Structures are given as structure tokens and as C-alpha cells.
Amino acid sequence: MMNTDPIADYLTRVRNAIKANHRVVEIPASNLKKEITKVLFDKGYIANYKFEEVGPQGTIKVALKYHPITKIPAIRSIQRISKPGLRKYAGTTNMPRVLNGLGIAILSTSKGVMTDKEARQHNVGGEVLCYVY
Predict the structure, then answer these.
(1) pTM score, two decimals?
(2) Which residues of the chain are under the pLDDT cut of 50?
(3) How is 62-130 classified by DSSP, letter by letter?
């Protein structure tokens, strides 16, 4: 099956797994999805991840993170911003702030996939892939 927006599919799979209180979600892999997964792990939104090289493209297994007592997920909201039909770009001057700095915006820049704060530090702009908080 051909998917027109693999990043939206990735985010939807994570969103659905959180709503269903799943511990692990399996996602078809790509280099961009691997980089987004690494950013989510580095910022503490997911517990762990594993790349499995099976088949032609492989899969990403993402272990979702929940609060140990209240069982509230670490990812409250994850939404796609730049879509294939309407790309959204941000320069260094108009970088988005998610929840006034409490959330992160994941950007695809010329220096790789990074958060909005890292993009400000590196003084680069890029395509705003998604907001996470």
C-alpha cells in the first residue's frame, strides 16, 4: 500500500497507541522517522526505541512513556504541521514556540532533524514537521 504522507502516518500510529494505552508501537522505518524518534527519545517523550532491519525497509519499535502512578502519557498532544499539500517553513527569526516553550517543535533543517530550541542555537531554519507537548 502506498502512503502519501509517511510522517503523518507515524504520528497517527503513536497517537492511536497512546489513546489505547499500548506500551509498544511498531512503525515502518525510514531515515526521517528514525531521526524524529531519536529527538522524541532525547527530549524524554518516549521510554525507548529499537530499529529492526527486517524486510526491505525495516521497522521502528517505540516504547511509549507513561507516568508510573497516574498512567498519564508523556505525550499529551502530537500534531503534524507541514503537510504535503501545504509546507510550513520557519526561519531563524520566526521560529515557533510550542506552549510558550514547554513543548517542542520538530524541524527538518539543513543540519538534520532537531528541535526549535536547537535550531535557534545553530541559527538555522527549516520545515516545521510537528508539535509535541
Answers:
(1) 0.94
(2) none
(3) EEE-B-TTT--BS-S-EEE-S-SSS--EE-STT---GGGGTSEEEEEETTEEEEHHHHHHHT--EEEEE
